[in-house]
Amino acid sequence: MPSIVGPIKINSVGGGVVNFGDSFYLSPKSTSKTNTGSGALNTGDFICTNNGISSTNPFDPDANDQNVTANA
């Protein structure tokens, strides 16, 4: 099925896959976890972030978040 892709702005891609249009098979090849406070990962041209007190809890009680096994 054809797709129409509008205006796109990509500043950087670090080790990832950028796919536009039709795709047959996409799956994650690696995973990672990041703990940040509120408003820390906002991206864009004009950002106005108003935060009060921000606290991040990095405690992760489960062993696996996203398994990468059996990905081709």
UniProtKB/TrEMBL annotation:
Signal peptide bounds: none
UniProt-annotated stretches for the region Disordered: 52-72
Alphabetized InterPro entries for the sequence: Spore_germination_GerPA (IPR019618)
Recorded family membership: Belongs to the GerPA/GerPF family.
Family matches, as PANTHER family: SPORE GERMINATION PROTEIN-LIKE PROTEIN YDZR (PTHR37808:SF1), SPORE GERMINATION PROTEIN-LIKE PROTEIN YDZR-RELATED (PTHR37808)
Name assigned to this protein: Spore germination protein
Organism expressing this protein natively: Virgibacillus halodenitrificans
